[in-house]
């Protein structure tokens, strides 16, 4: 996997015969109290020295990923639009910077239904984000949660259930990543003998959770399952020479995982 172009809000990589584009929707600053030690115990002010803070807060990138096979583009997650922090909602600018024609985006698949992953379906001005969208895939176990989002009402009946093991096409397969949410899904992308795991919210705070994967996040719906999934996918990536792409890894959020003693280390591409 090799980076072939980049800008303020995007980075494009070659993965076999595919182009994979990281698109930055923005960032969100979150309280350190969102982190949880085993036993659902908040850290408080007792944070390890390596944790990166901005004005006392954890700064989380919000990334989405486009997979271009030369014909159509599949977009994994769509950002927050104007439904969350004012520092998010910049996916349209990222697409423009990356010179991606939104009319080529025919398939959108979401890792889960938290607002920073789905609300970019509707732009801040109320128009559709992707006017040529023909397939919208939502994890089956979260269909009810998706249909509870009033802002996305026009998409409620268009969404199709996505199951673990389902193939979006010849290069993209959905794999189980439950824990952060009940249907949380990772997408395994393969081409030319290379593999990329687009894993959504498996890691929220990269300066901490690679080294200490037992640490969870307040918004993990099932913290034990989220911890187990993180350990499983970190090991999968490290032991099988997979690349990873994370929604909340520091933008552009693409790299490798290597074992580091009892923990792991992230190495950006």
UniProtKB/TrEMBL annotation:
Concerning PANTHER family, the annotation shows: QUORUM-QUENCHING LACTONASE YTNP-RELATED, QUORUM-QUENCHING LACTONASE YTNP-RELATED-RELATED
* One matching Pfam family: Lactamase_B
Q: Which InterPro entries match?
A: MBL_superfamily_lactonases (IPR051013), Metallo-B-lactamas (IPR001279), RibonucZ/Hydroxyglut_hydro (IPR036866)
Q: Name one GO molecular function term.
A: hydrolase activity
Domain named Metallo-beta-lactamase: which ranges? Answer: 61-248
Instruction: Provide the protein name.
Output: MBL fold metallo-hydrolase
Keywords annotated in UniProt: Hydrolase, Metal-binding, Zinc
Give the family this protein belongs to, as stated in its UniProt record.
Answer: Belongs to the metallo-beta-lactamase superfamily.
């Amino acid at each position: 996997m090799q980076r072939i172009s980049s800008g303020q809000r995007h980075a494009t990589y070659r993965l076999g015969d595919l182009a994979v584009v990281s698109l930055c929707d923005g960032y969100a600053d979150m309280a350190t109290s969102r982190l949880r030690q085993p036993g659902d115990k908040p850290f408080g002010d007792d944070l390890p020295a390596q944790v990166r803070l901005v004005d006392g807060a954890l700064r989380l990138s919000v990334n989405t990923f486009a997979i271009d096979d030369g014909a159509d583009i599949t977009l994994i997650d769509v950002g927050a639009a104007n439904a969350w922090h004012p520092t998010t909602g910049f996916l349209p600018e990222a697409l423009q910077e990356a010179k991606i024609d939104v009319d080529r985006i025919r398939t959108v698949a979401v890792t889960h239904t938290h607002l920073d992953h789905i609300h970019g379906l509707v732009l801040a001005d109320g128009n559709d984000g992707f006017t040529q969208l023909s397939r919208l895939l939502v994890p089956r176990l979260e269909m009810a949660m998706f249909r509870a989002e009033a802002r996305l009402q026009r998409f409620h009946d268009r969404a199709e259930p996505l199951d673990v093991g389902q193939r979006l096409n010849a290069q993209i397969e959905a794999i189980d990543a439950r824990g952060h949410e009940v249907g949380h899904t990772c997408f395994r992308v393969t081409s030319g003998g290379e593999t990329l795991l687009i894993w959504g919210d498996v890691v929220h705070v990269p300066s901490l959770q690679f080294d200490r994967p037992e640490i969870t996040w307040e918004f993990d719906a099932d913290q034990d399952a989220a911890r187990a999934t993180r350990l499983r996918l970190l090991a999968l990536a490290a032991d099988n020479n997979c690349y990873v792409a994370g929604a909340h890894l520091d933008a552009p959020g693409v790299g490798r995982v290597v074992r580091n003693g009892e923990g792991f280390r992230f190495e950006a591409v």
